[in-house]
Amino acid sequence: MKQVAHIRQISLALRNRFGDQRKIGSRAVHTFPSPQRIARASESQLRECKLGYRAKNLRATAQLVGSGECDLESSSMLPDSDLRKNLCQLPGVGVKIANCVMLFAYERLRAFPIDVWIERVLRQHYFPRRKKMTAQQLREFSETYFGEHGGYAQQYLFHHARITSRKTEVSRDSSTPKAFGARNDRLAQVVSPAGLR
User: Fold this and answer.
1) Which residue among 88, 91, 123, 164 is buried most deeply as judged by most CB within 10 Å?
2) CA distances from 96 to 10, 102, 112, 196 (A)
3) Would you call 191 exposed, middle or buried from its count of C-beta atoms within 10 A (0-12, 13-18, 19+)?
4) In b/e form, how buried is each residue of 127-143, taking b as 16+ CB within 10 angstroms?
């Protein structure tokens, strides 16, 4: 439920406050803090980085990882379903975040994170006539339809949704209800299993 710009701000705040300073050329940057460093921070210190309620979960997860109780390295050997299950046991981690971690940190290309944007585009482009599609049905569809390259398809769909939304917002007047965007028939070709090969 966070916008990308806000996530970047949180990341920068965490690095600046808890990371180690390094010099790259003439520029000073900060590393991502270790789990041990985050675990030592207080919840209020983490909240000052604009984490809100997430501060408690980040700190608890950092404590589990920092103490070795949760070994994220050894989890890389697990099959997708077990990895997802393990990640979902961490404080505040649901299926969407677990799939993000699987896709971007573990390079599990089948992982298909479904956020608000992706749910909208799936409903609009793949199920325009079905009123009732549960989150579980959308997950099952994405796993079977997009298959081994689901993560790539998810990124194309997300990009399409964001670009279409921006174009729609610019072209509509203030009296028009906010719309998700016009249908793009080329999208189905791009993210079809044949288009991903």
Assistant:
1) 164
2) 19, 10, 8, 22
3) buried
4) eeeeeeeeeeebbebbe
State which amino acid sits at residue 12.
L
Residue 22 has a CB neighbour count (10 Å cut-off) of 10
DSSP 3-state assignment of 190? helix
**Of 193 and 48, more confident:** 48
| DSSP code at position 174 | T
- Is residue 66 scored above 50 in pLDDT? yes
Tell me whether strands 27-30 and 21-24 are parallel, antiparallel or unpaired. antiparallel
What's the pLDDT score for residue 163? Answer: 87
Q: Are 124 and 183 in contact (CB under 8 A)?
A: yes
pLDDT for residue 185 is more than 60: no
What per-residue confidence (pLDDT) applies to 1? 65
